[in-house]
Amino acid sequence: MRDGITGPWLDALEAEGIRTAIMGFLDFKTEPARLWTGWTALQPMGSGDIYLDNYVFDPIAEGIPIQIGENAFTYQGSEQLSLALAVPQTAPDSLVAASLDSTEYKGRKAILWRALMISAPNANTPAVWAFRRIRSGIMDKLSVSYDGQQRLFTLTIESHSASITNASASTYLDQPLFDPDDTSQAYAVSIANDPRVPGRLATGEN
Question: Fewer C-beta neighbours within 10 Å, C or N terminus of the chain?
Answer without folding.
Answer: C
